[in-house]
Write a structure and sequence with these properties.
- By secondary structure, this protein is an all-alpha fold.
- The chain has a domain at about 25-89.
- It is about 85% helix and about 0% strand.
- It starts with a helix and ends with a helix.
- The relative contact order is 0.10.
């Protein structure tokens, strides 16, 4: 196997590990936010409002604080949880 092929395999393995870790963090975060929304709906609402009020969130990343895709993902997660809790309530 060539050095390039070995490096590619190593990078693919690292990417796979990173994706698993990211998925675990995502599931944990969603679970914690959903729990907060169910147990302390006012606190969840305040958190969502505070995040929505931040410059990076309003401008979708235009201010340089956070990439637009990250701000959009945060909005998506908060919206999913809000809708899910509203359906249950």
């Amino acid at each position: 196997m060539t050095d390039d092929a070995t490096r590619i395999l190593a990078l693919e393995a690292r990417l796979d590990d990173a994706q698993k870790i990211l998925m675990a963090h995502d599931l944990l975060l969603r679970g914690l936010l959903a729990h907060l929304a169910l147990v302390e709906p006012q606190m969840f609402g305040q958190l969502a409002e505070r995040l929505s009020g931040l410059k990076f969130f309003r401008e979708g990343g235009g201010g340089g604080e956070m990439p637009r895709e990250v701000a959009e993902e945060i909005a998506l997660i908060l919206g999913e949880i809000s809708r899910s809790v509203a359906r249950q309530g």
